Amino acid sequence: MEETPTLPFEIKLAAGASLVENTLHDLLAPRTLEGELHRPERLLMAMRHGVLNGGKRLRPFLVLETAALFETNKQSAALRVAAALECVHCYSLVHDDLPAMDDDDLRRGQPTVHRAFDEAAAILAGDSLLTFAFDIISASETDLTAEAKLTLVNRLARASGMGGMAGGQALDLAAEGSSLKEEEILLLQSMKTGALIRFACEAGSLVGGAQPLETERLAEFGSAIGLAFQLADDLLDLTSNSETMGKATGKDAAAGKATLASLHGIEWTRRQLNGLVAQAEELLEPFGERAETLREAARFVANRQK
């Protein structure tokens, strides 16, 4: 019997992105859900602009793939949790781009929300995307137990709040013009970037019904590739350009922000990325061949060019 050819990782990622995009289109349709009073048209348009603008959808892809490790019938629930996570991620991008934060004009090659609309619309769109994420997870349409939903809501709140992504952004803003030590940079990055990637892998395992030790192992996998993602991002900020990236580059250096790549150099950063991929692959060993796509994801994160 001939073996089924393996799809390239980029095609798998694009297929996952398409599923998530369709789910987000449906969730952010111009209609009122049960229990809602009204969806203001301009606010909804700003939210859609901030979410439905392409992107790799890596975080929701990790939710889908970690859930699939356990061969459950929870794909619909996994898709909704993945979409909720992407709402949180996109809210953070909308707010990060504001003049009071990073003051960016481009995101994924398109005008940022505050440029396409205005600052007030961008703030409200971000607020609405964040709260909508918890609506999606807790809704009756998400086919999970009440206990599972409560755990997901709690862990997403912590990953996105003051002890996670938002706290990391606060540390990042405070770091402008400062000479941070390596451990301070690692803490900042584990919060700002790593927390949501770790949650993605944790969430998928929870949807899939994993055992606690399996969930912890996948969360650690998420931490490893979260750091790899940030190191690769710092490397691209030093070596790439805005046309390739679809956003401004060189901003860390211009703002006087220290990164591990700027502290140790390009070759050191590449060696660290190789080490993190090896660590990620080791964490996946108990899952055998089922985790091959996640291994590919780790390599993709470390070697991406944009």
TrEMBL record:
<keyword id="KW-0479">Metal-binding</keyword>
<dbReference type="InterPro" id="IPR033749">
    <property type="entry name" value="Polyprenyl_synt_CS"/>
</dbReference>
<keyword id="KW-0808">Transferase</keyword>
<dbReference type="GO" id="GO:0016740">
    <property type="term" value="F:transferase activity"/>
</dbReference>
<comment type="similarity">
    <text>Belongs to the FPP/GGPP synthase family.</text>
</comment>
<dbReference type="InterPro" id="IPR008949">
    <property type="entry name" value="Isoprenoid_synthase_dom_sf"/>
</dbReference>
<dbReference type="InterPro" id="IPR053378">
    <property type="entry name" value="Prenyl_diphosphate_synthase"/>
</dbReference>
<dbReference type="Pfam" id="PF00348">
    <property type="entry name" value="polyprenyl_synt"/>
</dbReference>
<protein>
    <submittedName>
        <fullName>Polyprenyl synthetase family protein</fullName>
        <ecNumber>2.5.1.-</ecNumber>
    </submittedName>
</protein>
<dbReference type="InterPro" id="IPR000092">
    <property type="entry name" value="Polyprenyl_synt"/>
</dbReference>
<keyword id="KW-0460">Magnesium</keyword>
<keyword id="KW-0414">Isoprene biosynthesis</keyword>
